[in-house]
Amino acid sequence: MSFTKITEQTSHYEHLEKMSVSELLQNINNEDKTVPLAVEKALPKIEKTIEKVVSQLKNGGRLFYIGAGTSGRLGVVDASECPPTFGVSFNLVVGIIAGGDKAIRKAVEFAEDDTEQAWKDLTEFNINQNDFVIGIAASGTTPYVIGGLEKCNQNNIPTGCITCNEGSPLSQVSQYPIEVVVGPEFVTGSSRMKAGTAQKLVLNMISTATMIQLGKVKGNKMVDMQLSNNKLVDRGIRMIMSEIPVSYEEAGVLLNKFGSVRKAVEGFLSL
């Protein structure tokens, strides 16, 4: 299959080394401004993906992200932030990166070229038809990700993808493809920049909208967040005070007793 890798096309800018810091920042910023507009064009496909993800999770399934390099790291970041933000199990949203967890900090050579490894990684989690797997790859050509989605399809596990090229091999094997075409990078081929930003924005949408649909947010507040530091405990106390007529000290007692904002408010109202 032939398609144009827009992510690999030459930058719109020349002689970057001759630019001042001010010029570099202004030009990078100008390019970054185009990313949300590209994401906006993909909103209908993002919506369809989220609807399927929510359906799978309500049926007892899990959400998996698979990727290599920057794409894999972004998936791991999004997955790792769901438990503290929304109070869900660490097993509900899982990020898998080619090369294993050590690849989060240091690139593992040729890990992304293995077409079989993603499926092996997924089977360690007993992947099944209730789950949903999203492959993340800026170019849409990463063998690790494509191979993983192909095996999922063969085993009737629904698949989606986030890529920044139209008509890529990854999109072709994805049942719910999301293509955010951000154009050439400021530094030619450096897809950690605009493409990475686009992927992060889409991941924010997927996880946040999904968790809201699952009832993990009330009003606009993270009522199920984990109380993992003093800042979050203080935030939780103030959330309780905004919901029920108690003092800061009383709210703190309730939070300590019930363990979450939601349970503290419900416990107080049931008295």
Give the percentage of residues in beta strands: 5-15%
- Please count the helical segments: 11
Whole-Å distance between the termini? Answer: 65 Å
Q: How many strands in all?
A: 5
**Uncertain segments of ≥5 residues (pLDDT<50)?**
none
The largest pleated sheet is described as: 5 strands, parallel
* Major β-sheet strand ordering: 2-1-3-4-5
> What is the ordering of alpha helices and beta strands?
HHHEHEHEHEHEHHHH
Shape: globular
Radius of gyration over all CA atoms, rounded: 21 Å
Helix content: 40-55%
How would you describe what is shown here?
The protein has 271 residues and is α/β, with parallel strands linked by helices. Helices cover 48% and strands 9% of the residues. The chain starts with 20 loop residues before the first helix and ends with a helix. 42% of the residues are buried. The mean pLDDT is 95.
Summarize the structure.
With 271 residues, the protein is of the alpha/beta class. The chain has helices at residues 21-32, 35-41, 43-58, 69-86, 117-123, 143-154, 169-172, 194-213, 230-243, 248-258, 261-269, and strands at residues 63-67, 93-97, 132-136, 159-163, 176-179. The model has no long low-confidence stretch (mean pLDDT 95).
Characteristics:
about 270 residues; alpha/beta; five-stranded parallel beta sheet
What are the SSEs and their pairings?
Elements: H1 21-32, H2 35-41, H3 43-58, E1 63-67, H4 69-86, E2 93-97, H5 117-123, E3 132-136, H6 143-154, E4 159-163, H7 169-172, E5 176-179, H8 194-213, H9 230-243, H10 248-258, H11 261-269
Parallel strand pairs: 1-2, 1-3, 3-4, 4-5
Helix pairs in contact: 2-8, 3-8, 4-8, 5-6, 9-10, 9-11, 10-11
